[in-house]
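agent> step 3/5: call structure_predict on target 'Tn3 transposase DDE domain-containing protein' (Tengunoibacter tsumagoiensis).
agent> reason: downstream docking stage needs a structural representation; sequence fetched in step 2, passing through unchanged.
tool.input:
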Amino acid sequence: MKGDGLGTNTGFKRLPSADPGTTESDLRYVRSRYIHKEQLRNAIAHVANTIFEIRRADIWGEGTTACASDSKKFGAWNQNLLTEWHIRYRGPGIMIYWHVERKSTCIYSQFKSCSSSSEVAAMIEGLLRHCTDAEIEKNYVDTHGSYTERPDQ
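tool.output (status=ok):
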């Protein structure tokens, strides 16, 4: 991916300075050989499912069937290729849309464009693609994720 970590000091050129034995070439090899989007999703699902398994019902209650979803703006450098101006928060950045189940475990997250007008699509995507064992029957959102019928319907 071009522009990895641009403006965050965590890119392939900056990161090796923290470990003189690691080179930019080493990091690119590891990413191309071992890190893929599907594998990361599987790893996140595995961690979430393990959390669900080890929870003690006497402390956490029974299994959850609900989650909440919302986005958060993170500031980013203007030079980052994904950075956009956010009109509501008045600044450059990116948006991450989170799905968090009732007991505080993130079951899905995704990048969302600052210029998108609706969060409904991101909300539905997370409910359909979370890949965990959680059986979500309800989702709580703020007004940006709500659906309103037109008065003429």
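agent> step 4/5: record observation. The mean pLDDT is 77.
agent> proceeding.
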